[in-house]
Each structure stands twice: as C-alpha cells, then as structure tokens.
C-alpha cells in the first residue's frame, strides 16, 4: 500500500535501526479494526508527522505505541527492544513521553505538581534544571506555577502537557494534535518550540496532526493515514506538493 | 463608608422581606396540613384538634432558616453582584480556618484535664477520635487516591478480630509472659493483617472504578462480616469475643493493686486513669495517621495517588505503575483501619460482628465526603458534627416541650443525618472544606506575579 516517493530508502542512515519501528500493527476496539497493518519508522533526531482525517486511526496508533489498547498483531520496537507487550508504565520508563489527545493534565493539581508528575520517570534527579528549562521554553508556565491546572487556558494547558512530557527527558516525544482548538498564534508558538527542541537538543518527535500544512512544513518526513492504513509517505515538502494531499488536507492547495 | 452601611441595611431589609414571604408561604401550607387534626372519637365522630403552636414553630423555623440562608449566601432577592455581608464574612472565615487546626489540636491535648470533662465527655472524645482516625485512614483511599471504598469497615473488623484472637488465644497459649504487653504487640500485627487484607481486596478490584468499585468493596465488607458471623470456631460467631485484655500503661495495668499504674506513680486509684490513657492512645494513633498521610502527600507516592484520582491513563503514560499505586493506597488505608479496630477491641473488651455492619462504613465514608475528600481538617469537623451531633440529639430534651412528651429526638437521628447530607451536597458539593491545598507551595514572598515576569524581573 505504501506509496514511496523517494527513490532512496526513507530512513536516511539505512544501516541503523530506527528509534521507533512499527511493523504491521493491527489494533481492534472489540470487533472493529482501527489499524489495518501499519508500518512506520521514526529515526533518531527526526520530526515525523502523521496526518489524516478524523477517525483515520492516528490517535489509536499513538495509544497503541503506549500499549493501551494493545496491538493484536504486528510488532513495535523502540531502541531495538520489542515493546509490543510491555505495560504502559514500563514503556514510559524507556523514555517515551506523550502529550496525549485532549492534553490530560491533572486539573486539580497545580502546574508545579503536574510538572513533578512528569519527572517521575527521571527519578527527580534533574528536576530543578529541567524546571528552569521549561520556564525558558514556556514563560507562561512560570507565571502560572501555583495555579491549578484546570484553571489554565487551552493553550497554556497544551504547553503544560508538552512541558510535563519533556520533564521525563524523553528519547522520543509523541505529540497528539497539539494544535487542537488553539488560536493560530499559540499554534505557531508551540510548533516553534518543537522545532527549537529538535534543532538544539536533537529531540526526536512523532507528531500526529490534522493541521497538515503546519505539521508537514515542520516535519522532516510525513505519513498520511486513511482508514487505518498508511497510504502515502515522503518528506514533508514532497507531501505538501502532492495533489492528493493538497486536495484532501490543505483546503484547495494553500501553499 | 456611609454608602456601604446603607447597602448593608438595604440588603438586610430585603432579606427580611424575603424571609417574611417564605414564612407566609409556610403558614399557608402548614396551617391546613398541620394546624388542624382530626381524630376518631369514642362514638365514631371526628374530633377536631388544633395545633397552632406547632404551626407557629414551623413558620418561625422557615423564617429563621430563610433569613440565615439569604444573609449567608448573599443571594439577595432583588440585587445582583457580591454581597456586603459575604465580603465581610470572607476574611474572617479564612482566618477561622487557619486557626481551626491548631486550636482543635490544643483542645484535644488538654481535654482530659479540663474541669468540665467527666467520664461521659471523655468517652465521647474517644468515640469522635476513633471516627476521626477512621476518616483519615479512609481519606487516603477515597480522598487522595479517589477509590470509592464502601467496605472500609471490613478492615476495622480485621483489626479488631486480629487483636482479639491474638490477645485472648494466641498469646496466652504461646507466650503468657507477654500478657501485660498484649496491646502493644497486637497493635502492629493487627495493622499489618489489615494491610494484607487491603491488598487482597485490592487485587481483584484493580481494574474497577467508580460505581463498580463501590459495589465490590461493599460486598467485601459484607463478606468479612458474614464470615465472622458464621465461622463459630474461629470468631465465636454472633457471640463475639469477650474478655479482651485491657491496655496497660506500657506493662503497668490500671488496677487498684500494688503493681498497678496508680500505686507505681503514687497516685490514688481512679478508674478514669484508664479512660484518660485510652484517650491519649487514640489521640496519638489519630495524629500518626494524620502525620503519615500529610507526609506521604508530599512524596512521589502521594502525588501519584492524587494524579491517579485525576486521570489514570495520563498517570500510566507518565510511567506511574498504577497497580502498585492503588495497592499501596488500599494497604495503607486498611492498616490505619486495622489500628483503629485494635483500639476499638481493647476499649470495648468485647467485639461481635454486629459492630461492623454497613452502617459503620457509610458513617465513615460520610465523614470523609462531608468533610471534603482529601481535607484532614474537614474530616475532623465532620466527625465532630456527625458523631457529636448524634450524641447531642440525645440531650435535646427541650424539644419534648414543643413536640409533646412522646417525642424521642434520637429516633430522628437518621432523618436529620440524611437531611444534613442532602443540604451539604447542595451547598457544598465537594464537602465542607473543598479547596485542595497544593502539596507544596512557595512562601508568599517567593510567588511570582505575572507583572514582574512581563517586565523581565522573573
């Protein structure tokens, strides 16, 4: 199914195993099959985006990587280790962090406590330094430090969700629709932060987005998902130029 | 200033008017329904009796309650915005809450030595403290970890029976020399056994939440009680276990003899010594419970409990082992229930399954929920109100002059109990003390105002 555009293999340094390798993953909700054999790679230091319409299975793939729900077929490997059958908290302990769909911050806990929860995997060793880093990335969080998470605005909650994920010093950051329901200016800020983290620290990011234009411009590579299968793959720029992508996801070919 | 006083006066007038209207409506309803009463006379004729005094009482109650409600909530009938009355209440209220904890603790420490404290007050104090301890123990499970447990009394029972069986059967049979120390040896064992049963209950209910968890824990509480009721050889069945040893003052019994506590310390023998001692034991146990739960809240495990209450899936994605987190909450909560159970057994000297019915679980849960799940002070206030309030109902003899000599206030206990619950859930759906305190907060000076950040003084 995968329609590869580039003649060279997608994974640029072909000899090294990708950081995250998804192979033939199938996921079911009861009898309904949400993922129908997904193959996908994320290499170290890359930003990879997955775009697709509502209900294509993007978030399901994200959650399947985290083991909830579990893949019924196929394999997921992270850093050479098969994580398909690991418990969610053990997967997180391998330094995969997630800013989940709907943000899922802890609303009655303060911003500070939310960030503390993020550092659990790291054992709170670098907590003070990382807190300063988060303040530098998201100054708004510093202002709101002792406010309850639930009282933050949507954009601030998204920043908190990303910062909480970053507190674990992840090797791979999974972001599920960080732009959802946010003002364009905030979306721009958040995408700039992701870009900055990738450039300066080499953070590997797997980004699930509906905002295809921004996501593909940011990402090194992208995948398009339709009905639980990957239908297209390529570099961000290539996908942006594809007429099918333009027609389906870019509102009449905006460049 | 003048206008403030004027608006306050206007508010009060409006509230009075509102209350008068409510009283008028109450009069219209109660006059035909309550004011007139017909009884069948001797020759099958109806006899009309009037009860205008009762009507007057009810109307007065409605008036007073409506007035109090209007003034308290600041819902003025004809004006919007914040109420002057409320504004004035606010700072006083917060100061009151800040001082309430230390004040209550001070009172609890000196209570046995106050001149007004007699045997009855001490017993009531012990009862309230037992419920405070149970409330604080359950607070770990319900308030912090958010696991609705309707069978908490099971752990109370496990603690009590562990204590009773070990002290009346195991210790005399194996190491009778330990006799005087029975309480101090059995207490930790009973706590550990209760914690063990907490884990036993925890495993099957790990995947359950909310209503389903409540049903299973309810069943668990009943299972423990029914087993104790029917396993005659083990627990004595409905006859219970009697002559459980009384606690000793670290080996010195509270007896009039030469080796007793009074003789050793050169005091006159007084049976209240034992009660005072029991009072301090339960106070200490309760304070340990409070200390441990406030400490744990600041540690990763406590924060994980609270995060678990908020969002289980997010917890797992952050690398929290939710299984262990839930089990520790169950085990710790159960352990404190077990301690309280041991205390109950040694205080009563006799236990039977009847003491551990569902009403107890409901009572403890009500204390936690009414107090405001997660708040230690809230638990104290609601325990005093619920346990002490029920006791106070016994003393409301003057109500007999209103409702007639056959009126027994204690019979209305459950009715009032339910009414208070409903009212609190309407006005304060998250409990009396609903604001959750952050587990960690910087001092006033260190908080960063948003103005400073924008100017770059961060």
TrEMBL record, chain A:
Keywords: Amino-acid transport, ATP-binding, Nucleotide-binding, Transport. SMART domains: AAA. GO terms for molecular function: ATP binding; ATP hydrolysis activity; branched-chain amino acid transmembrane transporter activity. GO terms for biological process: L-amino acid transport. It comes from the Bacteria. InterPro entries: AAA+_ATPase, ABC_branched_ATPase_LivF/BraG, ABC_transporter-like_ATP-bd, ABC_transporter-like_CS, BCAA_Transport_ATP-bd_LivF, P-loop_NTPase. It holds the Pfam family ABC_tran. This is ABC transporter ATP-binding protein. The lineage of its organism: Bacteria, Pseudomonadati, Pseudomonadota, Alphaproteobacteria, Hyphomicrobiales.
TrEMBL record, chain B:
It comes from the Bacteria. NCBIfam families: PRK11301.1 (NF008450). Keywords: Cell membrane, Membrane, Transmembrane, Transmembrane helix. Residues 15-110 form the High-affinity branched-chain amino acid transport system permease LivHM N-terminal domain. This is High-affinity branched-chain amino acid ABC transporter permease LivM. It is found in: Cell membrane. It is a multi-pass membrane protein. It comes from Blastochloris sulfoviridis.
């Amino acid at each position: 199914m995968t329609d590869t555009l580039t003649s060279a293999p997608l994974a640029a340094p072909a000899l090294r195993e990708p950081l995250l390798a998804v192979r033939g993953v199938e996921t079911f909700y009861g009898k309904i099959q949400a993922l129908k054999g997904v193959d996908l790679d994320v290499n170290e230091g890359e930003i990879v985006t997955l775009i697709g319409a509502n209900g294509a299975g993007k978030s399901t793939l994200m959650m399947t990587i985290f083991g909830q729900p579990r893949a019924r077929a196929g394999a997921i490997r992270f850093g050479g280790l098969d994580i398909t059958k690991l418990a969610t908290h053990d997967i997180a302990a391998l330094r995969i962090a997630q800013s989940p769909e709907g943000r899922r911050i802890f609303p009655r806990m303060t911003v500070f406590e939310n960030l503390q929860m993020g550092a659990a995997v790291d054992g709170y060793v670098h907590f003070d330094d990382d807190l300063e880093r988060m303040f530098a990335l998201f100054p708004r969080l510093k202002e709101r430090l002792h406010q309850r998470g639930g009282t933050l605005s949507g954009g601030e909650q998204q920043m908190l969700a990303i910062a909480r994920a970053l507190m674990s010093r992840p090797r791979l950051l999974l972001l599920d629709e960080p732009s959802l329901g946010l003002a364009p200016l905030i979306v721009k800020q958040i995408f700039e932060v992701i870009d900055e983290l990738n450039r300066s620290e080499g953070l590997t990011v797997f980004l699930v987005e509906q905002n295809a234009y921004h996501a593909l411009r940011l990402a090194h590579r992208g995948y398009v998902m339709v009905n639980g299968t990957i239908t297209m793959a390529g570099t961000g720029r290539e996908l942006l130029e594809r007429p099918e992508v333009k027609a389906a996801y870019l509102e009449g070919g905006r460049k | 200033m003048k206008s403030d006083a004027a608006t306050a006066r206007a508010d009060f007038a409006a509230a009075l008017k509102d209350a008068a209207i409510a009283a008028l409506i109450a009069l219209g309803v109660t006059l035909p329904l309550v004011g007139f009463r017909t009884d069948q006379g001797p020759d099958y004729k109806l006899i009309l009796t009037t009860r205008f005094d009762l009507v007057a009482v009810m109307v007065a109650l409605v008036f007073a309650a409506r007035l109090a409600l209007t003034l308290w909530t600041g819902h003025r009938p004809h004006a919007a915005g914040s109420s002057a009355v409320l504004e004035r209440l606010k700072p006083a209220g917060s100061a009151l809450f800040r001082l309430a904890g230390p004040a209550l603790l001070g009172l609890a420490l000196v209570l046995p030595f106050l001149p007004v404290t007699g045997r009855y007050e001490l017993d009531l104090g012990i009862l309230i403290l037992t419920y405070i301890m149970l409330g604080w123990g359950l607070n770990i499970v319900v308030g912090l970890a958010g696991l609705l447990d309707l069978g908490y009394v099971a752990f109370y029972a496990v603690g009590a029976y562990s204590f009773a069986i070990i002290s009346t059967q195991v210790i005399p049979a194996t190491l009778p020399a330990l006799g005087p120390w029975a309480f101090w040896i059995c207490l930790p064992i009973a706590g550990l056994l209760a914690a063990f049963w907490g884990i036993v209950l925890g495993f099957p209910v790990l995947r359950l939440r909310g209503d389903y968890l409540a049903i299973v824990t309810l069943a668990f509480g009943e299972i423990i009680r029914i087993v104790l009721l029917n396993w005659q050889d083990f627990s004595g069945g409905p006859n219970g276990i009697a002559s459980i040893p009384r606690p000793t003052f670290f080996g010195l019994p509270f007896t009039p003899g030469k080796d007793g506590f009074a003789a050793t310390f050169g005091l006159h023998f007084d049976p209240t010594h034992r009660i005072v001692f029991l009072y301090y034991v339960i106070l200490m146990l309760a304070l340990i419970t409070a200390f441990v739960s406030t400490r744990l809240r600041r540690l990763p495990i406590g924060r994980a409990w609270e995060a678990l209450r908020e969002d289980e899936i997010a917890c797992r994605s952050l690398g929290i082992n939710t299984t262990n987190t839930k089990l520790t909450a169950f085990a710790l909560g159960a352990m404190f229930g077990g301690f309280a159970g041991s205390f109950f057994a040694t205080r009563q000297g006799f236990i039977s399954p009847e003491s551990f019915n569902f009403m107890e679980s409901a009572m403890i849960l009500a204390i936690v929920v009414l107090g405001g799940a997660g708040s230690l002070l809230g638990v104290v206030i609601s325990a005093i109100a619920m346990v002490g309030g029920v006791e106070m109902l016994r003393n409301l003899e003057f109500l007999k002059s209103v409702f007639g000599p056959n009126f027994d206030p204690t019979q209305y206990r459950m009715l009032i109990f339910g009414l208070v619950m409903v009212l609190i859930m309407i006005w304060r759906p998250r409990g009396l003390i609903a604001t959750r305190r952050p587990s960690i907060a910087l001092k006033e000076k260190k908080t960063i105002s948003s103005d400073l950040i924008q100017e770059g003084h961060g």
